[in-house]
Amino acid sequence: MAKITVTVNGTSHTSDVEDRTLLVNYLREQLNLTGTHVGCDTSQCGACVVLVDGKSVKSCTMLAARCEGAAITTIEGLSTDGSMHPLQEGFWECHGLQCGFCTPGMIMAATDLLKQNPNPTDEEIRHGLEGNLCRCTGYHNIVRSVQYAAAKMRGEAVSSQNA
Amino acid sequence: MIPAAFEYVKASSVAQAIALLNQHGEDAKVIAGGHSLLPAMKLRLSQPAVLIDIAAVAELKGIKINGGTLTIGAGETYHAIATSSTVKNACPVIAACTGQIGDIQVRNAGTIGGALAHADPAADLTAVFLAIGGTVTVQNAGGTRTIAADDMFVSMLMTSLESGELITAVNVPVMSKGQGASYAKLKHPASRYAIVGVAASVTVANGVVSACRVAVTGAGPQAVRQPSVEKALMGTAGDAAAIKAACASAGADMEYLGDIHASEDYRRAMVKVYAARALTDAIAAARA
Hints:
The structure holds 2 protein chains of 2 kinds. Chain A has a 5-stranded mixed beta sheet with strand order 2-1-5-3-4, sandwiched between helices. Chain A has 5 helices and 5 strands; from the N terminus they run ββαβββαααα. The mean pLDDT of chain A is 96. Chain A folds into 2 domains: 2-77, Ubiquitin-like (UB roll); 86-153, DNA polymerase, domain 1 (Orthogonal Bundle). By secondary structure, chain A is of the alpha+beta class. The relative contact order of chain A is 0.16. Chain A has helices at 23-30, 86-93, 103-116, 122-128, 140-153; strands spanning 2-8, 11-17, 49-52, 55-58, 71-73. Chain B has 3 domains: 7-53, 2-Layer Sandwich (Uridine Diphospho-n-acetylenolpyruvylglucosamine Reductase, domain 2); 58-173, Uridine Diphospho-n-acetylenolpyruvylglucosamine Reductase, domain 3 (2-Layer Sandwich), CATH 3.30.465; 179-287, Enolase-like, domain 1 (2-Layer Sandwich), CATH 3.30.390. In chain B, strands 4-5-10-6-7 form a 5-stranded antiparallel beta sheet. In chain B, α9 (227-233) runs antiparallel to α10 and α10 packs antiparallel against α11. Chain B is globular. Chain B starts with 6 loop residues before the first strand and ends with a helix. The mean pLDDT of chain B is 97. At the A-B interface, β4 and α3 of A face β1, α2 and α6 of B.
């Protein structure tokens, strides 16, 4: 067993974890943060993407024990004071999801993407989200959703019609 | 899927990691990015009793130029390398190659040392490392040694690293005027592993190709050089006709692996195509 102290969505947690516990299982089963999904479990689909110390990672392919001291952000940590994060709003406004299974991972990956590139082209968004698979939308509305959020985060007027 | 039980140890120095490797012998595995090892452990293809985590070892970080050599710490991630202005200027093919490995989450985790130590048959860096003629610095309890790229890859997933040894740095030549290198790959659309990847490095002097190294990954059990292509191109102008003639023998003398993504025959055909693309780009870069 390992004892880890991590900050998840701003709250410090000290937990005993089995050495082989994967970060995604720790988040879902010990912290009950089930917004992070397990899709393929083989680090290809991206449903489990979270931020660890600000970088997007696939939490199905990271050991919880490695995260000692880390600051982790999951989909549950994005909204503040009950108002949606611009990415959440973008996915809502631009119909960026259908079944919603891939959405938490898409949004967390897009968070990292927009931090590194606040004004991306559609092509750059598609490249930046290569690690996230969606089987419903065909990606078109996901790209629009990220453009919507990017514009809003740059302080520009936004509309689901022109994103 | 959850791996079989193991003991996790976070190493804080190279010396500690090597001491742990010696203490646990064959029962131990080193983990860096873990994106090759953890999937194998989930499938129980690998069941180490002890996992030595080197991701936080500061000595394995750093990117620096020393004379004509660019030295990249074994623990540097693909993303750090791909976005490093030092790497982009000194050896652009390394930045270009690491920038197209997997996806951003893989690049945030995976390391250059891990890629070369694991030697996946479909890894990208193995071919580039062979083509540009790099070396790895390896440390064990007794000291350090250097392994040249040509001596590194023994067979599928097997390198000439010995037990108790850890790659600490990867050294590649700084590209000078007249030199150019390129990596061209046919990628698997989901994993972005190389179905076929070809790396080429050339020197053009007085209008003719005076040095040339070509290596193939993805198509067979291990990355291999293409001596017949290299030889055929030497002394030519490196124009389209010379490249076409040289690539006629690309992939002729190597082992192939076929799978559900691409047959052996398809890979054999694509080696010629991607060898020509890599050589065309490398020669253009050498002339630039």
